[in-house]
Structure formats: C-alpha cells, structure tokens
Amino acid sequence: MGFVKERLDNNDGSIKKISADMEYQEYLNLVEDSKTLVDIKPSYQNGLSFRIFEALGYEKKIITNNSYVKEFNFYNPDNIFVTDFENFTGLNEFLEKPYSPIDEKIVYEYSLENWLHKLFSDI
Q: Using an 8 Å Cβ cutoff, are 111 and 95 in contact?
C-alpha cells in the first residue's frame, strides 16, 4: 500500500484524506460530493463493508481490495475496481469511464429499507 500512502501524502487536492472522527451525516455529505470511494479491507474482516453498499446506493465508483465483492449480483467492473493496492493496472481507464447504473431491483435488494423490511416482517 506504499503507493496509496504516497499518493495521499502528496496529492494535488483531488483526493481527500480524512484522519479525524466525524458525524455519519458529515461523512455521507462527503460521499455525495465524491466521484469515487476507497474501501480498504483489513485482513481480519470477512464479508463486505458498509462502504460498498454506500457506493451502490449513492451510485459512486469504488476502489477496494475486497475481491469477495465480485461474487455479488451488483458487481460491475465499470463501477468497482478490485486491487491489492500494489498493482493499479487499469485504474486510469476505470476512473475515466462513467458510472454504469445498476438495476433498481438489485439496488433495492441491498438497501437499508429492504433490510429493515426483512428484519421486521418476521416479527
């Protein structure tokens, strides 16, 4: 991840590095204003982070090291760039392509509204 750290430390302002706690709404405002999100999966994590689902819901591209995302029906290589954060072959092409909208039914399947509906429909 040396390249990523170097890019964050010496960026031209196109990358916003957040190193302090913030309210979730403030974070979501940043998500709305962003073109692309970055998701770094720690080695101990299984499954997907909320950041993946936020990118899906807000129609944002995302760069991640979580290859498990490729197994989901919303995976589209135009929207999700999977890397080990050492090899960035194809990143420029990925960033230049526009976001490819995902079918609304698929997006709804992973929405908070649907999860809550499923949770409370069994009660």
A: no
Residues 6+ apart with CB under 8 A from 96: none
Tokens found for residue 10: 């010496």
pLDDT tens-place string over residues 51-110: 999 999 999 999 999 999 999 999 999 999 999 999 999 999 999 999 999 999 999 999
Count CA atoms closer than 13 A to 1's CA, side-chain side.
10
47-66: pLDDT as tens digits: 999 999 999 999 999 999 99
Strand order across the 36-39 sheet? 36-39, 61-64, 80-82
Q: Alpha-carbon distance 118 to 122, whole Å?
A: 7
Structurally, how many domains does the chain consist of?
1
* Residue 47: partners with Cβ closer than 8 Å, 6 or more residues away: 68
Domain that holds residue 44: 2-121
